[in-house]
Design brief:
This protein has about 230 residues and is an alpha+beta fold. The protein has 8 helices and 8 strands. This is Helix-turn-helix domain-containing protein.
Length: about 230
């Protein structure tokens, strides 16, 4: 779960309720009330009240085994988030995933220190590929997606050497920084002056054909920039 530091202007109760949703999002097969209580560090009775409230809003549901799962009420809440961006990007990332035979991703800067995966597209014809869920939060200075975004900015004295290298070559490469033993190659999407910076990239097992992959990722980033206007 995301590490949020509470201050005096925040609601501790709401914070705990939101942590229930974050916990369930990481366990789509469901959790018991006791497991939820242990996961967010509260008494079982308190966790039960959180679950009952979230059930009333259809944000969680109980399956036949009485395990708590994410509910359908989350869908309309998430659907408006970057709707136009995801709609435009989806066919381009589908094409990128199939051309590379690798999982493609669209990542957006969340805050000064983090990026979040907005869209993850798996290749349709690859025999094996990497799988991870949209919504994943990672440090901006770890992994090719965040480093590509940093490389699109002016150089800083305290930046990683890999960011400077990405700025020089035009794309970022990482290995094992987000998913163990997995390569990432990403390019920033240009022209996002008034919107959150974004990058597109692929995650794959082998980077033997780096130049070809970099060309495909860069072309996808440029096409997405043109499509977004």
């Amino acid at each position: 779960m995301e590490d949020v530091e509470l201050d005096g202007g925040m609601s501790k109760t709401l914070h705990s309720g939101l942590r229930v949703l974050e916990l369930l999002s990481a366990h789509p097969d469901g959790l018991t009330v006791t497991e939820i209580a242990d996961g967010i560090g509260v008494h079982r009775t308190v966790a039960h009240r959180f679950v009952r409230t979230l059930e009333a809003h259809r944000l969680v549901r109980r399956d036949r085994a009485k395990r708590i799962r994410p509910g359908a009420g989350l869908v309309p809440l998430a659907e408006p988030v970057e709707r136009d961006l995801r709609a435009v990007a989806t066919p381009l990332l589908e094409e990128l995933a199939d051309e590379c035979g690798a999982t493609a991703h669209l990542v957006s800067q969340e805050d000064d220190d983090h990026v979040r995966a907005l869209l993850v597209v798996e290749p349709r014809r690859a025999s094996v590929h990497i799988a991870f869920r949209p919504g994943q939060l990672d440090r901006i200075d770890r992994g090719s997606a965040g480093m590509a975004i940093l490389a699109a900015r002016p150089a800083r004295a305290d930046e990683r050497t890999e960011v400077g290298e990405a700025r020089t070559r035009g794309y970022a490469v990482s290995y094992g920084e987000v998913i163990p033993s997995i390569y990432g190659i990403s390019c920033a999407v240009p022209g996002r002056r008034d919107s959150a910076p974004i990058s597109v990239g692929v995650s794959l097992f082998d980077l033997a054909d780096e130049q070809r992959l970099a060309g495909l990722v860069g072309d996808c980033a440029d096409r997405l920039a043109r499509a977004l206007g």
